[in-house]
Amino acid sequence: MNVLLPCFVALGVMFGLVAYAPELYRAFCGATGYGGTTQRAYSDPTTTSDKTVTVAFDSNVAPGLPWRFEPEQRSVTVHLGEQKLVFFTAENLSNESIVGHAAFNVTPETSGIYFNKIQCFCFNEERLEPHQKVEMPVVFFVDPAFAKDADNLHVDTITLSYTFFRSTNPSQSKNLSRFLANAAPDPVHGRQLFTERCTACHATDINKAGPVLGGVVGRRAGSAPGYHYSAALKSAGLTWSTDNLDRWLADPQKLVPGARMPVRVLDAPSRRDIIAYLQKVGQQRGNRTGSNAAASDGEY
């Protein structure tokens, strides 16, 4: 028994390592950029650089997936630290709904640890309806630290490559129609985006580094009680309609020069869903206020 027990323990550990090997490998690649694995980010970097790099795009479709998939631009030149929006187009050439999954990497592989994606279709299993064609946004930036890495001193071009495969996990798919211009806003997705990209500075119930955003839709800009706004925003004369919020999230400095808001949301579908979530939060707050008022009226 003294011999068998350690053997069983060792076998259990070995089986566990085998079962979790793919997840461990993906975690290792994500943490180190190994094999040109890119990083996932949720906001702009804090600094930008005068140095530039060209990012080229490569797209492929695996055998057995009847899709057409290509970038809408072959390359872009970006400043290090600059958030950039580009688009890819996917089209289902078949008569059936199909779920695809995009594998990706960058070359040279030494650039992977510095290449950050904020928005990408590669984050999910993606479904295309029969003969549907969709324009898909990708938002990325290259960390300014890229220029300080000795392995990248002579690198002036990074190639971002995707290959779409038929998904082996179609039950977890999202519909690519969410990227269509006439797609309905999704406040559930908006809540997820708000949690990922906004809660470092904002909350819906209290002021933080940024003002409280519960009830922001319809509110006059610069008017949240207890928050110290920039002079630019206080004097902007704006009301936060959904259109103005969309313009603000797209480029705060363009809408209100001198405002302190440092973050932009470049892709329109994400802005639409974040605003839908904030609108829903405001409606729920209004309903609670109304209920409390009704209760008070009933007591007196």
What brief labels describe this structure?
300 residues, alpha/beta, Ctag/Cox11 (Pfam 04442), Cytochrome Bc1 Complex, Chain D, domain 2, 2 domains, 6-stranded mixed sheet, 5-stranded mixed sheet, 24% strand, disordered C terminus, cell membrane, heme, transmembrane, iron, transmembrane helix
Describe the structure.
The structure is a single chain. With 300 residues, the chain is α/β, with parallel strands linked by helices. It folds into 2 domains: 40-172, Ctag/Cox11 (Pfam 04442) (Sandwich); 187-288, Cytochrome Bc1 Complex, Chain D, domain 2 (Orthogonal Bundle). Helices cover 30% and strands 24% of the residues.
Distance between the termini: 78 Å
Supply the CATH architecture of the largest domain: Sandwich
Count of separate DSSP helical elements: 6
The CATH topology of the largest domain is what? Ctag/Cox11 (Pfam 04442)
Task: Explain briefly what this protein structure is.
Keywords: Cell inner membrane, Cell membrane, Copper, Electron transport, Heme, Iron, Membrane, Metal-binding, Signal-anchor, Transmembrane, Transmembrane helix, Transport. The chain is of the alpha/beta class and 300 residues long.
Topology, element by element:
Elements: H1 4-32, E1 39-40, E2 52-61, E3 67-71, E4 75-79, E5 84-92, E6 98-107, E7 115-119, E8 125-128, E9 133-142, E10 157-166, E11 173-175, H2 187-197, H3 231-234, H4 242-250, H5 252-255, H6 268-299
Parallel strand pairs: 1-7, 2-10, 8-11
Antiparallel strand pairs: 2-4, 3-5, 5-9, 6-8, 6-10, 7-9
Helix pairs in contact: 2-6, 4-6
